[in-house]
Amino acid sequence: MDEVTISEEDRRQLGLWAADCVERALPLFEAKAPSDPRPREAIEGIRAFVREGKRTAQLRALAWAAHAAAREVDDPAATAAARAACHAAATPYIHPLATPHQSKHVLGPAVYGALGHELAAGDAGSADKEIRRAIEHAPPEVRALLRRMPARKPGRSRLDTLYYELDAALRG
Questions:
Q1: Residue 13 — pLDDT band, cuts 50, 70, 90?
Q2: What is the torsional sign of CA 70, 63, 148, 135?
Q3: Which of 18, 28, 103, 144 could form a disulfide with 149 if both were Cys (CB 3.0 to 4.6 A apart)?
Q4: What is the pLDDT of residue 1?
């Protein structure tokens, strides 16, 4: 299995972009679970990483807590938003492996955030708008990191489609 180079600056830029994508989806979770701070805390954690550059056990715990929040909330849009937060907080832990699985970790925050918007609105155009925004705001470091990994292939599900569209556009 080939390895890719991932610098700390790559990780910080990815974390910043991921947090920006996910923050737009957090209200979808907070509307359904207003007393559950875990997804927002995960985003605060990734922002702290961006500022301080330290991967900590606390950040990993925040990612897992957002994942648990996604499992516990009873609303598909809120679940997607919490999953997006989990993915964002986990971005500093991406393995330097050239695999589609690792590219999924790069794209996951934006994709799950977009899916949350689509599920909340009942309209695919909502996700498409969020994907376009993610593309427009992706820093060069994120694009370069993704290009070092294998391209995603089209799949059958809507989630697969969003992953593929974002991947293809960021490489373009």
A1: very high
A2: positive
A3: 103
A4: 75
